[in-house]
Design the sequence.
């Protein structure tokens, strides 16, 4: 793969044979981001899980203590909680008419929150929403009667995590412009969450390796802590 001069220059700051403590890794992530925009910082966790087994298909959500730095456009689909949704400043609120708009190709939103009575209608467009990761689920807190809390959590910095076919989980930590302590708080929150959802079937090391990176930046290996 051909690398740009910019990438090659910043990559020299990272020794890819070393595993760095999280503080140093985050410091390097900031230093190796030379883009003109405020790049996203991500963490990747390689887990010793087999997603083919239902009990090892890890999926959930977490509200990051320092937020994500991203603005999420929230669509609430409901017939029973429209007033609450509007008072909570959802970007879009409606019922079946919103589902019809989606069927016609409208996707000017990032998250859907739905109340339970609308799920049978949403199920009809599950093949459209599912591949985009937009289908609401109770497990992720996006199917709920408490739409106010659901909206508030998203505004605070709620992110979803899901293990892929190779056993990896990729999660946003924030933006390069964040204070390093905020990025660290988000990282530790994710790490502790993964510890809590460790499948009982896992034998041996649960986390194989961890790395963090910024958009178009080099990967930085992170020292594992708190796990066997």
Sequence:
């Amino acid at each position: 793969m051909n690398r740009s001069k910019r990438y090659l220059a910043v990559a020299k700051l990272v020794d890819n044979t070393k595993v760095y403590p999280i503080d140093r890794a985050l410091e390097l992530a900031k230093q190796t981001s030379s883009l003109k925009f405020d790049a996203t910082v991500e963490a990747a966790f390689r887990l010793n899980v087999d997603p083919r087994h239902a009990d090892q298909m890890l999926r959930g959500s977490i509200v990051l203590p320092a937020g994500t730095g991203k603005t999420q456009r929230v669509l609430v689909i409901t017939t029973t909680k429209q007033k609450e949704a509007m008072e909570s400043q959802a970007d879009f609120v409606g019922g079946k008419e919103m589902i019809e708009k989606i069927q016609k190709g409208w996707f000017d939103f990032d998250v859907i929150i739905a109340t339970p009575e609308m799920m049978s209608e949403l199920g009809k467009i599950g093949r459209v929403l599912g591949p985009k990761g937009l289908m609401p689920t109770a497990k992720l807190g996006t199917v709920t009667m408490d739409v106010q809390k659901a909206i508030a959590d998203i505004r605070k910095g709620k992110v979803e995590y899901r293990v892929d076919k190779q056993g990896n989980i990729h999660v946003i930590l924030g933006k390069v412009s964040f204070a390093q302590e905020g990025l660290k708080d988000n990282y530790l929150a994710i790490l502790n969450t993964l510890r809590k959802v460790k499948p009982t079937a896992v034998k041996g090391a649960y986390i194989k390796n961890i790395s963090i990176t910024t958009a178009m930046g080099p990967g930085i290996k992170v020292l594992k802590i708190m796990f066997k």
The mean pLDDT is 92. The helical segments are 5-11, 22-31, 82-87, 96-103, 119-122, 126-129, 147-156, 180-196.
